[in-house]
Amino acid sequence: MQKATFTNFRSPSQLLRLVLPFIFLASFGLGGVHAQSQFPNKPIRYVIPFPPGGATDNIARPLAAELGVLVKWNIVIDNKPGAGANIGAELVAKAPADGYTWLMGSVGTHGINQPLYTQGGGKLPFDPIKDFAPVTLVAEFGNVLVVNPDWAKRNNINSVNDLIRYARANPGKVNMASSGNGTSIHMAGELFKSMTKTYMVHLPYRGSPPAVADLIAGNVDIMFDNIPSAINFIKAGRLKALAVTSAKRSPALPDLPTVAEAANLPGYEATSWFGILVPANTPPDLVRLINTEAVRAINSPAVREKYAAMGAEPVGNTPEQFANFIKSEIAKWTRVVKESGAKVD
Questions:
Q1: Taken in order 127, 129, 132, 134, is the CA torsion positive or negative?
Q2: Who contacts 341 (Cβ-Cβ below 8 Å, separation ≥6)?
Q3: pLDDT value at residue 10
Q4: Which of 11, 68, 153, 234 is most buried (CB neighbours < 10 A)?
Q5: How many other C-beta atoms are found inside a 10 Å radius of the C-beta of residue 166?
Q6: Is 269 exposed, middle or buried (0-12, 13-18, 19+ CB in 10 A)?
Q7: CA-based angle 145:340:193, to the nearest 5?
Q8: In which band, very low, low, confident or very high, does the pLDDT at 340 lie, cut at 50, 70 and 90?
């Protein structure tokens, strides 16, 4: 059998047509590798859709700092609160898909808000699935039911059952603060109201810090706050904690019962989670690179120690796992919104 040689081709143009696709593929691959090796060549904007000092902010900052140490990435935190975190999420959804704009997404932006804001024909300014590329789930934890200590003392409220009895006897007289419509803090309260057949007035704030400040001041009565933003106030005695909203007790507050066990409410569970997302159509090689380094930072001793002190559990998974998790969360909270009758206040 005759061996194929370049002399077998009748013309140079015939040879060129054969090898041109291979030249193109090779150059494309090298270009992708080169682009990845140059990333990042400018600061990365990390959008936190809540004010400084809240749980979302507290989870993001140690991670950003550790990435600065491990891989020398310059990550700039940009707090963009408002509209139940929808303002910050929309900003990232519409940003260039170049890996330089991140969102610290949450159970609100990528679990609760779609069913909550679209009920009755409403519409979100972004699609939590189509407009984002998930990178990794960073951390998760339960919330904690806290009350103003003076208010609790005046009304003899020392347990979850005391609160339920008081709320039933005084419908509409208990004010329930949250960090905004659609947040885990809001929905933990709505689920509680639904399961206990109580009516409490929801007061949404622009983030957890101002809501907690008003709770401490006595301007509102109760809140289902994130553990990281409430724990120091609990330890200082400025807030009275009644129970955690997770399915099991929190290592950060081991003496507190769960709402389910304290009030005999089997099935009650409301947890918070936070993860990195980038705009849809971000090149897959960049998503993988960000994922690799972010997971390395999440699993570092420095970050794990800080998260443990907050009562947060570090995760760090693949983009595919995070994408599937988001889909399951939207399905879960769609059911809760429907069953509880929750609405945007």
A1: positive
A2: 190, 194
A3: 54
A4: 234
A5: 17
A6: middle
A7: 35
A8: confident
